[in-house]
Amino acid sequence: MIIATPPVIPNFGSASKCEQDNGWWCTDWLHQHWGDTLQPALVQHVELSAIAVGIGFGIAFVLALTGYRYRFLDPPIGAVADFLYTIPSLALFQLLVPITGLTVTTVEIALVSYTLLILYRNMVAGLRSVPDEALEVARGMGLTRTQTFFRVELPLAVPAIVAGLRIAAVSTISIATVAAFVIPKGLGRPIFIALEQNLFKTEILAAGALAIALALVSDVVLVLMQRVLTPWSRA
Amino acid sequence: MAGQAAELVFDEATKRYGDHPPAVDRLSLTVPAGEICVLVGPSGGGKTTALKLVNRLIPLTSGDIRIDGRSIEEQDVTQLRRGIGYVIQNVGLFPHQTVEANIGTVPRLYGRDRKWIRERARELLELVGLDPSYAKRYPSSLSGGQRQRVGLARALAADPPLLLMDEPFSAIDPIVRARLQDEFLRLQREVRKTVVFVTHDVDEAIKVGDRMAILREGGKLAQYDSPASILQQPADEFVAQFVGADRALKALSLRTLAELPLQTAHDGAPSLPGSTTLRDALALLIAERRETLNVTADGGEAIGSVALEDLLR
Q1: Which of A58, A120, B242, B300 is deepest in the core (most CB within 10 A)?
Q2: What is the interface pTM, i.e. ipTM, of the complex?
Q3: Domain with A88 in it
Q4: What domain count does chain B have?
């Protein structure tokens, strides 16, 4: 759906030819609005995603410890995480708004819910992947349960945990664009505004590109982090 | 840390799971300090169970086990385990740690610093026949034989007076296994630990053990004696069958040519070094269809000869 006429004039007075023609990549607009639109949206987006993944990681970690140690609790915990993951994000926002209002809390609750399944499943799988012989020897050599966990089980679970973090980070960054539905924050906001203002293509494209770039960068950072944490897996 | 060797006593040690017949049934035997006791027997004989009773990986149902007179039940379980070296078939090296860090596991629990561990790891790698440059490698880059050497070094790291070895060489190919057995015996002459060694392989038991405990199904001790005595005088039909109809031949593998009185050397007779077992010497005589062979010293010169009937005496 491309509207060619009348020309789009998002910025009265200073609109360039490119903007008037609703161009795909108006550099002058990008220059003008990096500071007041795109950059703040990017920073907010990083914040929204980082908080969601951070809190999600903490909750999933506690759940994973529980589900790993008490095996009978793993299926119910997994089922709840599964269920949360299947609720469409817009529907979840709708459900939460009457309770928590149009707030960051609403957004974070939703974002955190979506990280739990991936993080939980990967953590449990990682902990379970520790070879039995290593655990037997650890016990036989007199490591306590806590020592075994921190010196053997947790380090060996790191690759699976980081794999989960990568998926959680990328999907959270993607879903966080929908947060603009609830609060005027994140890279979703410029997209929503542009959609309202006669589909200004440059703004949609730029915000979208930033979201993709952010996802890619976070993925690379996590891969590098794993390389530092697990020198043994490259041997 | 411990050092030296400890006397190990099984005193009516019994393990029973629920209402099932016992897995280990009133096992009583004494392993003198500094000796290797091999637990051997068919599967279902409770060898591994008996071994794991010692470091309380499996709790005793009744009876007692004492290390240097102290009951294992009286001791704090983690302290007890730290004082006992433990080696298992699949080694169980920690894949995320270097060889050095693996070896340093128990010393670290005792609060030893990095420098001490680094030096100790180098020392132990040499002891188990690995180049100290292996210290910084990860287990995934080692062969099966090398891993088991590291496993042994790790078990020895805190100089425990007692070593438990659960089928340590069973997963290793025969040629490397024989070399590891030889090196383990050489190492044992140096460190003189008390060792409990589980195997299902009679030949390995005869080769490695100062004493053999033969366990039969139901975890009952069938015979406990030196390999030579067991081969010469099996206690019953079960033991005789278990050690095999060729037990006379196996007994020959316990002695070497150097132990025999020598006659003058014969020109043209085949020759073997004095360290050759009588069994291998007999095999050579049969293969070459000869009745005498020359025994050589380390330098290769003949120091005398033995005749076929000397081997069989």
Answers
A1: A120
A2: 0.84
A3: 38-234
A4: 2
